Amino acid sequence: ATVIRRRLKLKDYLVLGMFGLLTLKVPLQIIGAANLGGVMPTVQDVVNQAAAVERPQELGLTRANYALTQINVVKTYVRLVAVPVGQSLDYDYPLTNNFWECPRQTCLMPPTPASAVVLLVLVGIGIYSFKKWPLVSLGIGWWFVTLSVSSSIIPIRDVIYEHRVYLPLVGWVIVLVSVMRQRWLALGGSTLVAVYFVLTLFRANVWASEVNLWRDVWLKAPHKARANKNYGFVLTQVQGGLVEGIERLEYAVKLNPEDQDYRITLGGAYLQAQAWEKAREQFDKATQLPTWGGSP
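and the corresponding structure tokens:
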């Protein structure tokens, strides 16, 4: 701690203080969502809001398999930060129920232990850098501490979401800036920033329209119900996309027949196609289902 205080100047403390204020984002966001018509919500209101949004117990999530899954998820976040390719708005990410679980019959090393090794190496770098490169240590520490809000033993409905890395990403920026201050690494850091810039332009094309965005999600998760539902819906909103949109929506309902919203969306598409009986059938079934389905 003495080494860090000696190296940091007043402006550095001000910048870090601003970053510290960002840690209030998550609790304030939850409290804001639980706002009851201008009345200050109680702690119970906030808890109810979080439970209503997530409902992890209905998805087969436990503290154990969620924590194991997060070992792989955090490694995926590290990979996305270092090599930002293969992103998706909505991942079809498998749950891990056993530390030594192997997705295939034969594999050189189970993915969860491999992910744990990567994370331990990263932690080791943070510890090793504490005295020599304190900002590197600070950035790595920031990464893990801020990720702990969503990647711990507290189950959340969606095990992975890229927006959860926004706040932890500040740690990576601190590390990158610290590295670029070393003359012998400045060129490599500048090159990395340039590569990130180009990759951002390519990714921006995916976000150019809802159809492009959800097509990208569907191509990467063709058997995920929500990917089919959302891609199918946006297709029904563009000229010439109704037939394919209905196909995607039908498949989404097949994957998740207990979701009321999926059946209502499919019924609306049938109305557009003037398939009145099919639309009525979906709406009738939707009225018999709870307002929240069973899977993402």
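(Above: one complete record from the training split.) The two ends are 44 Å apart (CA to CA).
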